[in-house]
From TrEMBL:
Coiled coil feature spans: none
Keyword tags: Hydrolase
Hydrolase keyword on record: yes
Domain Fungal lipase-type positions: 117-163
Entries under Pfam families matching the protein: Lipase_3
InterPro entries: AB_hydrolase_fold, Fungal_lipase-type
Organism of derivation: Gossypium gossypioides
Protein name: Fungal lipase-type domain-containing protein
Biological process per Gene Ontology, one example term: lipid metabolic process
GO molecular function, one term: hydrolase activity
Length: 583
């Protein structure tokens, strides 16, 4: 289960692909074939062979783990169910010509246009779509690692969480690392960076353009970089696959995480929420230890440390985290977050994976019914929120995404009623009402909202009476002093109605119907009607008197993108910010 084991297994499976092709060339068949030993030793079986449509060579294979006990222990949660592996160039007459042509395409950033890559991509897409809930690895060596890298990029854009092991991946640029003089090396790289930045601004502009088909396919934002420190006598040894399973391997592993222009509170809060998502994925995949876990960079980059995990009492999943600002590590970078909170309490949303999806969907249903505050998950979260505020004071942040933002919203409301005004960042908070905002016709949209306001005001007067009960505080009005930050995407049907909710309030004031709207904006029809049933009354937990509303204006191709957390730290973020206050 450790990194050395996974590296060795992945490299051995790639070697299995090399030997599969050599067995084919030399016409070795069972029981004389040499290849099976390379995967059977690790309790894998050959699931599918990938054959090039030009020279009929075997360039890749899909391996499936066997469901039985073995020394390597494939019962572990971190072990893959499938591994897609690709070989590199083979220097024999049967395959050399085709492989070298693909090497040349790789150098020209055109490998993705080749039929071999398209075959590989199609096989990977089919595997991921059929076995989307299984653990799948991508791996390759040399040319094969370039194919794996491209597939990994594409699958990540589709929303899949891909684990990839790339051995000797080609870096398609001048090999500056080969220069012995450190000063000259740094000078060349600095000059190159300045020139590239200048050209990028000149050609693409400040906001950037969409990526073209000739994008630098070898560049990636983040990676675990393992450097083999052992001396190699020649290029063949330095570039060989065999070094990666060597018992005498001496390496240095480093995590490099890219954070583009993330210095504002919005991006930091969103990154801390992402940290909770990745904490739970680490748990599901049994990734333990700082070298293997993927979550820590999401908070360490902003000088926070993990203080406590919030664990659901029903399914054992991690649904939240308490982060503590690390003053010692931040002293040299205090300008990054000058008004840093002492603590940040963050909550994730729904995870679409079998270990947690059942529990999360039940909570989504409770949220839709205005019953989330009665769940054991929220009560546990509220206990930690109260304890933190009582111990530290109000210098904390609350933040969450989707279902998690609904929890943070309710927690923020309860704290406000106690007199604590907590800085709160809510990403894609669900608006529990008909999404009128998706109606394309402005006149129809306004008509629906106006009618709804009149109906709600009339129901309120009929059910609650024209005057509030003596001595009873209006909970909606009591929240006026609290102004949370709401982040919504205009293409997200779950939260876009917040835009219409606040805009309609302003329109009603402009046409002289402000008194109707001041009654209507506090209530929902569902909660009004439920109050007529004994023990069924509820508060409309999604309604707010005041908020900083940030609307993402960038077009989104699908719901997953519009509702995703990653949009809130995007460097090309384009938004409109509005302050709405109840009067």
């Amino acid at each position: 289960d450790n990194f050395h084991d996974r590296r060795s297994v992945a490299a051995s499976l790639v070697q299995g692909v090399y030997i599969l092709e050599r067995d084919r060339q030399e016409n070795r068949k069972d029981p004389l074939a040499h290849a099976p030993a390379w995967w059977e030793f690790f309790n894998f079986q050959l699931f599918h062979i990938l054959v090039d449509d030009v020279d009929n060579s075997i360039f890749g294979a899909i391996f499936q783990s066997k469901p039985c006990n073995f020394t390597y222990n494939h019962s572990s949660q971190s072990s893959p169910h499938y591994v897609v592996a690709f070989r590199g160039t083979i220097n024999t007459s049967n395959t050399r010509s085709r492989d070298l042509k693909l090497d040349f395409l790789c150098v020209r950033n055109r490998l993705h246009e080749s039929s071999r890559f398209q075959q590989a991509m199609q096989a990977a897409e089919s595997l991921f779509s059929v076995y989307r809930n299984s653990s799948i690895w991508l791996t390759g060596h040399s040319l094969g690692s370039a194919i794996s890298l491209l597939i990994g990029k594409n699958m990540t854009k589709m929303g899949y969480n891909v684990e990839a092991y790339l051995f000797n991946p080609p870096f398609l640029s001048a090999p500056v690392e080969g220069i012995k003089s450190e000063r000259l090396k740094h000078g060349i790289r600095f000059t190159s960076s300045v020139v590239k930045a200048g050209l990028a601004f000149a050609v693409k502009g400040r906001s950037g353009l969409q990526r073209s088909e000739s994008e630098p396919l070898h560049l990636i934002p983040s990676a675990y970089l393992t450097i083999n420190l052992r001396h190699s006598p020649d290029f063949k040894h330095a570039h060989g696959i065999h070094q990666w399973w060597d018992n005498g391997f001496i390496g240095l592993s480093e995590l490099h995480e890219y954070r583009p222009f993330v210095t504002d509170e919005k991006s930091i809060a969103a990154s801390l929420v992402q940290g909770v998502y990745v904490l739970e994925r680490d748990r599901q995949k049994n990734r333990e230890g700082h070298q293997v876990c993927c979550a820590p960079p999401w908070w360490e980059s902003f000088h926070f440390r993990l203080n406590h995990r919030l664990i659901d009492d029903v399914d054992g999943s991690i649904f939240g985290a308490i982060y503590e600002f690390d003053i010692n590590t931040s002293s040299a970078h205090h300008s990054q977050l000058q008004n840093a909170p002492n603590y940040v309490i963050a909550f994730r949303g729904t995870l679409n994976t079998p270990p947690s999806i059942s529990r999360d969907l039940k909570l989504d249903l409770l949220c839709a019914c205005n019953r989330l505050h009665g769940s054991s998950r929220f009560k546990l979260a509220m206990k930690f929120v109260n304890d933190t505020v009582e111990r530290i004071g109000p210098n904390i942040w609350l933040t969450g995404h989707s279902l998690g933002s609904a929890m943070a919203l309710i927690a923020g409301k309860e704290l406000t009623m106690k007199g604590y005004l907590i800085e709160t960042y809510l990403f894609n908070p669900p608006f529990l009402s008909t999404p009128v905002e998706i109606v394309k016709y402005p006149v129809l949209k306004t008509g629906i909202r106006f009618t709804s306001s009149v109906v709600k005001a009339a129901l309120t007067m009929a059910i609650k009476g024209p005057n509030p009960k003596p001595g009873k505080q209006d909970p909606f009005t009591a929240l006026c002093s609290w102004t949370p930050h709401l982040f919504v995407n205009q293409n997200d049907v779950l939260c876009s109605e917040y835009k219409g909710y606040f805009e309609h309030r302003k329109k009603m004031e402009e046409i002289g119907a402000g008194k109707i709207e001041r009654i209507s904006t506090k209530n929902s029809i569902v909660c009004l009607l439920s109050s007529l049933v004994p023990n069924m009354s509820c508060e409309p937990l999604h309604l707010l008197p005041s908020a900083y509303l940030t609307i993402n204006l960038r077009p989104c191709s699908d719901f997953r993108t519009a509702h995703g957390i990653e949009q809130w730290w995007d460097r090309n973020f384009n938004a409109k910010v509005e302050l709405h206050q109840f009067k």
